[in-house]
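Sample intake sheet
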Amino acid sequence: MAATGSERQPAGEGLGDAERVRDELGDALGAAGVKLPSLSLDAVSCAGAAPRVLIDLGRCNVATARALAAALRREVGR
């Protein structure tokens, strides 16, 4: 079944974007001296015709991970 407009992934929240945000968050956490050993993409949320990818750090969405990364960068002066 083809995806309808309401089933499509929102812009900026695809799998590739989620991988980049996970890496951005890991880098920002590392700069702040924090390492989350299981920081990853939530496999279940990546499945399906229109995945809603979650960053697994205790679970948060892509927008929250991006905001956290930005806040950490500001805090450490980057």
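Comment: The longest strand covers residues 54-56. The radius of gyration is 14 Å.
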